[in-house]
Amino acid sequence: MRKKAKFHKRGQPFFLLVATVIALLLASSPVAVPAFADWRYESRINSFDYKQTYGYWETLDIPEEFRMNTVHAAVLPTGKVLLVAGSGNNLDSFNAFDNNGEIAVLKTAVFDPSSRQLKHIATPNDLFCSGHALLQSGSLLIAGGTSGYELLEGEVKKPAGAIVIHNEDPDSPVKTLKKGTKFTSPSGKVYVSTDDATVKPASKMDHGNGDVMIHHSSAKVFVEAIAEDSNYITSKSEQYSIEGLRGTDKQNIYGQGGPMTLEKQDFRGDNKAYEFDPVKEEYVAVGDMQESRWYPSLPVLTSGDVLAVSGLDSAGIITETTEYYNPGTKQWSWGPNRPFPTYPALFRTMDPSILFYSGSSAGYGPADKGREPGFWNIKDNTFRIAEGLRQTDILETGASVALPPKQGSNDGSQSHKVMVAGGGGVGESPLITARTDIIDLAETNPRYTPGPDLPEPVRYLNMTVTPWDEVFATGGTRDYRAKSNSYSYKSYSYNPTSNNISSLADTPIGRGYHSGSLLLRDGRVLVFGGDPLYSDNDNTTPGKFEQRIEIYTPPQFYRDTPPAITGANSQQANRGQQLMFKSNDADRIKTARLIAPSSATHVTNIDQRSVAAIVHKQGDQLKVDLPQDENLLPNGWYMLFFTDRQGIPSQAKMVQIVR
Ligand code: CU
C-alpha cells in the first residue's frame, strides 16, 4: 500500500536531461551552482523513492526556549524522552548556577514524541556528565554530574588540590561541611573548599572477641588557596585543621591532603543522585554516592541494583571505586574496586554476578589501565580477559552494542552477542579504525571474531538496536571531537543475521562527541547532541554545541502503514506469562521483541537490548509467550514491538515485568 504519489524516479532520463540543461545554463554563474546542487539534493532526499530506499531525516522544530545542549537522554516508561543538558559543557552556564544558584540554567526537558510537545523540568543540580539507568520501577536513576570545570595550566590562579576529611568518631552525627569551609595547614596557610562535603561517623567493627576496631570515615573535597599566591604551593601531604569544629570534633575530624599546585585541573565529579519520576515528571533526591563521579557507567544488575563504575572524583581523579545503588533503601554501598576508563561499556550477562566489559569506553583514561575486554565477576572481583579483539589500542570513543536476535525468528532463540565498532586512539590521537569485532557470550570460551568493516573509520558512532533485528548506526567523526570538520554523515544498518552493512540516508547534521541516539516507542530513532572542539577546517574557531534534534524514519515505514495492535498500552506481567493482543494486521506479524528502553549519553547506550518473545497468531489474535528466564528478562520495563514481514514495527506496548 502506498501512501503518497511518487515525485519522480531517480535516474529518469527526462529529469536528467532537464537537470543537465539547467546545469549548463548555470555553469557561468559559480554562485548559483551550489544553490542548484542544494536544490537537487533536497529534492532527491525528499522524494518518495529515496525515502522508501534509504529512510528520512527530520529535524525537529524546537522553540527557542527549549534549545539546549542535550548531553543525556532516556526513554521513560511513558514513551516520553527525558532530555538533560545540565551546564552542557558551557562554563558560563556552570558559573551562573554555581555563583547565583540559578537552577534555570541547568536545563532538563521532557519531550513527547507523539505530540511533539516539550516541557521544562526543574533541575536540582548540574547533571552534566552524570550516569543514568532506568530502574525496574520505571524511575530513571541519575547519579553524579559536574562540581567543577576543567582549567588548563595557566588558567589556574590559586594553588589547589584535594583534601580527605577523616572522622575518627563513630558516635558523631552526619555533618555537612559547606562549600567555603576553611582548611588550615600546620604552617597556617588557609585553603577553601569548592563544594559541600558530607562527613559520616567512623565505623565500628566488632571482631566478636570483645575487640572493637574503629575505622575512620573519609570524604574527599577539593580546596583552593584563599589567595592567588604561589606561596601556597606545597608538595607535602599534611594534616589540616577544619574551621567551625568544636569540642571533641576538633580532635576527631581533620583533613589529610596535598599537594597543592597550579597544575591543570580536570573536571570534578559530584556525588548527588536522583530518581526521576516518569509520572510526576520530577527529580526526587536519593542518597548521595560515597564517591563523586563525572563520566560513570551505571549498569543495571539482574537483581535491580545498579553498580556505579568509574568516573572522575571530587578532585578530578579517575576513581577505581564502585558502589551499589539499592532502589529499596535508596542508599549506596561500596562495590569491588577495579580500574576502568570513564564511561566503560559494561553489559549484563546470563550470570548475574558477571558483567562483560567490551573494552571500549566513551570517556578517557590512562592507556595502560582497565583497557582489556573481559568478564568481570563483581562478587569475587576476578576478571577473565576476552581474547581476539583486534586493535586494542583503538577502542576509545568506540561503540559497543548488544546485538538483536536472529532476524525474523519466532522460535524464542536469543542473541548473546556484543559488537564493538570503530573507535580512536587514547586521547587526541589521530589513530582511528573501521574495525568491528563480535563476541558471542553464549559460547563456552567466548572470544572476539572479526565483523565486517564499517564504511569508514569513525569515532563516536551511535548504534541503536531496532525491532526488525538490525542495528542502526549513524554519525561520528574521523578525528578527535570532529577536528578539521571530520564528520561522517553516513548512516547504515548492520544486520547480524546476514552479517552485512547496508547504506541508509546520509544525516544532514554532523554529530560526534556528546551525542547519542535512542529508539522511540514508534520504532523511529531520535538523535541528539554533538560538541565539536572547533567549528572550522583549520581548528581556530571554537566549536558550537549542536542543539538540533532529529528523528530518523527507516525506509520500510514508507512501504506500508505500521501494524495496528489493540490491547493494553501499558501493563504489568510475569515471566513465562502469555499476553493477549488483537490486530487486523495479525496475518502479517512475524515477530515480537521486548526491547529495554534506551538511556544514552556520550554515544553509550548499554541499557538497550532486544529479547525475543514467541508470538502465536489465531485469526485477529496475537498471543505472546514471555521468556521464563530471569537472567534473560529481568524485572523492569520493556517496549514490546510486533514487527511485520517487511520489518515494519508496531507502536510498542509498554510491559513491566514484575516477577
Ligand atoms: Cu562529557
What's the average pLDDT? 92
Number of helical segments? 5
Radius of gyration: 26 Å
Low-confidence stretches: 1-32
Number of strands: 47
What best-fitting shape do the alpha-carbon axes yield? Answer: globular
How are the strands of the biggest sheet laid out side by side? 40-47-46-42-44-45-41
Distance between the amino and carboxyl termini: 41 Å
Largest sheet: 7 strands, mixed
The residue fraction in helices comes out at under 10%
Structural class call reads mainly beta
What small molecules accompany the polymer chains?
Answer: copper (II) ion
Proportion in β-strands: 25-35%
Q: What attributes does this structure have?
A:
659 residues, mainly beta, 7-stranded mixed β-sheet, 6-stranded antiparallel barrel, binds copper (II) ion
Commentary on this structure:
The protein has 659 residues and is mainly β. Helices cover 8% and strands 34% of the residues. It contains five helices and 47 strands. The chain has a seven-stranded mixed beta sheet, with no helix packed on it. A six-stranded antiparallel β-barrel has the order 9-16-12-11-17-18. Strand 6 (131-134) and strand 7 (140-143) form a beta hairpin. The longest helix has 14 residues, at 13-26. The radius of gyration is 26 Å and the shape is globular. It binds copper (II) ion. Copper (II) ion is lined by residues 129, 514, 602.
